[in-house]
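hey all, quick one before standup. I had two proteins in the batch that finished overnight and I want to keep them in one place so we stop losing track of which output belongs to which input. First protein below, input sequence then structure tokens straight from the run.
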Amino acid sequence: MREEIQLETLLEKVMAELEKKLGREGTSLSKEQATEAVIHAANMHAEDEKTDEPRSLIPSPKWQEGLAELIASTPARIGVWRAGTRPMTKTMLQLRRDHAAAVDAVYGEVSDALLREFDLFTVETRFENTEIYLKRPDLGRIITEQGVKTIKEKCKPKPQVQIVVSDGLSANAIEANLRDVFPALLDSLRSYGLSWGTPFFIKGGRVACMDHIGEILQPEVMVLLIGERPGLVSANSMSAYMCYRPRKGMVESERTVISNIHKGGTPPIEAGAHIGTILSKMLEQKASGVHLII
């Protein structure tokens, strides 16, 4: 069966198959019969996914075309219908699934294998643990004393471009997108004739940790690839924050950001290439954020 199966559609088909079996063969199913029904429903779903027609659970919409356009225009939960005064079971199951994915993203960790793949060493902020990280954003902006020492020992000082990766609020975002974003970013920098310093990974980082790193390494420009706060549409969304000469005391309007980097948003490879373009313009204009003309 395909890995990416939408829960609500698969559940609907499984229930339909089970009802057919129960109607023909009595009130109980053997394990083999139930398994057969699930497989058959999944195969039917795989065939349905070959079309891009938007789905609606509303039985008889007054304006079918308009509803289809709305559903096709947004990943938000619209046209889900109801059972009496409550949401339908499949809608609630999908909501609980997506909420669980968001929680997993926050409490997950980026794998050591991925960090080794891109030769990223790890430093930490003062966040201590996930619970404190969520309650004390300020601690995610400051690198530990050991981390500062490690950065000074391993990183090239005053690079033209400094690349940093952080789990932020979604480790899953890094796992899902880094393999596409990172190589595309390096290719883009090469195409503009730009050089970069020593990339590394920050565990428990917040966006403003850029400022502390800027004080340590003094790069001309910096990009932070960080996991976004997960939502119920995607738990795998990454952002790329960029700024010219990061330093303590920077305001948010001095940062430039590309957000919603994931399979269903800004394509990771496209984002990596565009990051290089923006960094090049920052160096040309010696500016970032609202002062940058793109």
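OK second protein, same deal, sequence then tokens:
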Amino acid sequence: MKTTLFTNGIHETPTLTDGDAIEARFKLDYAEFSLDVDLCLPGRGVTALFGHSGSGKTTLLRCIAGLERPMGRLSVNGAVWQDDKLFLPTYRRPLGYVFQEANLFPHLSVRGNLTYGLKRTRFKDSKVLLDQAIDLLAIGHLLERKTTRLSGGERQRVAIARALAVNPKVLLMDEPLAALDQARKREILPFLETLHDELEIPLLYVTHSSDEVARLADHLVILSQGKAVASGPLTETLARLDLPVRPDEEAAVVLKARIIEQDLDWHLARAEFAGGSVWVRDLDFNLGEAVRLQILARDVSLTKELPAVSNSILNRLSAVIQDIGAGEHPAIKIVLLQVGDSPLLCRLTSRSAQMLAIKPGQKVWAQIKSAAIIE
């Protein structure tokens, strides 16, 4: 089976046996913390490892990198890196690792930092691959600059390029935006989205930021006290009522959509997803452009009758109630809705839920006050 680091780039043919997936089963005990996970993750796309500080996100990443030695098994797209008889040390694992801090060599230029990383790979086209990474991350104009003269966002882009240059079979990123201010985060996020679109290898992304999860992830693993309490596709996992990923005020779903219509007079665009469509602000979209929608539960209301045209809410969707869960406070309920093939969440008061007499299986109308394109 052929794999590709970049979708329009270098090809090679490694020996694969089990199919495209990361299988990670680890057990690691410390005095005050234990990691105990059994995961099967996609062999391509971005998997976010999400949870509060101390939940085990970085420990799991270090186990995959071989920086910790847990009991268990690890295979990456069919290649076994660890089992009962085998443990590949870090230097023999074909991976790239990007830390919170870029950890660049201050005595070398950007070019020197990038070419230094090539010493650990025997990949015959490594120079071509490095050139692709430089173009992908738009750092060509920085090559002769000292790393001490880079901004935080530029440093991280160089660190990512260095990690890609070794032809990794998996890219590990440990909260790469945590040390950056908001301006630098906005600077580097588009490049992370480009990685999401261009890389054919899996990217495991540690974060405690729900915004980064919504913007980048395809698959979501929620960790708590060293255990994976949920693992699955982003949309379905965010919609689970038994696993509140965020406080009620921030509960939301993320839907993949496509721009199918524009209203130039009112600067609006219609985004279609699996089950319906909503009007959003037109951010100079192109027709057919793929986007991600974030719909907050607090921006969804319910009614049993089709709302009047005079209602100020543009977006009204036919839905079926799937489940009703408790919020963080007794006064709040979170309702899981099904809109076509897509889930939706609604946050309402317990009193409203009782007045509407809602129950699972009931057909209702969901009114969406606001749907945001994730930028």
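Flagging for whoever picks this up: The chain has two domains: 3-238, 250-373. The helical segments are 57-65, 110-116, 126-136, 152-164, 182-198, 210-216, 234-238, 350-356.
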